[in-house]
């Protein structure tokens, strides 16, 4: 198998090189994938109690596949049960669900037998059509609760924890890749059906816009990253923004729209504006083949000073669409002296990732091989905002209470 490191979340759509003359052996393909997870996945311990159960449940399904495409489809369902958005297998096709959270614009939680919308991504198709937190989801693309979960995970809800069920629902809310969605909800004793554009359409619409936007609000500088932490223009545009906002008395750094992650080559020069000396901003342990990640030594990821130095109080906004490098920047800014982190728990894209080519199925497995930590030793995925706001993107009226609270924190400083 061939291994290559990759910096960002988005999976490549890889063309299969299989020909009609190739003989596909599903058992060899399954054994290769499972053994790769055992040897290279740094987060296996998070699902270790479920791993044997999941492999047992999917063994027969995987062995029944007749082609690499069928195998990948079954494997995608299998891997979704790990609740790790970084853990994926490709190639992808139009009938696959979105890559979460990049293609997501609605976040929901399960309470009893109901699915409650908790947050809606700002400026998304769902937001613009009037979907709001507090609504109860009745069906997604015509499928009710139980059937939706089975379609995403390949298992009945009875075999899954509430957390696994909720993860499946949130993937389903984003719909199929580049396909329109139908969402039926109840609100104020009224049932409504919404026809939503493909979630990726909105992402692509803004892809060629500014990577960083800024403005001044009541003497406070506001800077928002627009899902481009893998684009070097973000570094340049951030530097321009802080120079323009130089006379403000505080800064709000908004990382709520970074679901696709990015890379350290973009993040570290930005973080460097918040320190006068070389400083660590996160810790990590790298998984080595044949070695449990916990036996690896802590290593420090550091940043170097960048001019101009930001010598004013600042806060950070984060939430359900803060992913991967966005999460790394959030914990890094916390380590570098943020006055507060405001918002909801982040997307929990686990670890630094690499791609491994699976030769038996001609598939590409993306997994976390570096375990990431806050500098205080907490797992990155366990980090919580210091000021919790459940509907961190938009509230039940469509407003941005997180931004309003951030202004209060800085103006009252």
Automatic annotation (TrEMBL):
<dbReference type="InterPro" id="IPR029045">
    <property type="entry name" value="ClpP/crotonase-like_dom_sf"/>
</dbReference>
<feature type="signal peptide">
    <location>
        <begin position="1"/>
        <end position="19"/>
    </location>
</feature>
<protein>
    <recommendedName>
        <fullName>Tail specific protease domain-containing protein</fullName>
    </recommendedName>
</protein>
<dbReference type="InterPro" id="IPR005151">
    <property type="entry name" value="Tail-specific_protease"/>
</dbReference>
<dbReference type="Pfam" id="PF03572">
    <property type="entry name" value="Peptidase_S41"/>
</dbReference>
<dbReference type="GO" id="GO:0006508">
    <property type="term" value="P:proteolysis"/>
</dbReference>
<dbReference type="InterPro" id="IPR036034">
    <property type="entry name" value="PDZ_sf"/>
</dbReference>
<dbReference type="GO" id="GO:0008236">
    <property type="term" value="F:serine-type peptidase activity"/>
</dbReference>
<keyword id="KW-0732">Signal</keyword>
<feature type="domain" description="Tail specific protease">
    <location>
        <begin position="220"/>
        <end position="386"/>
    </location>
</feature>
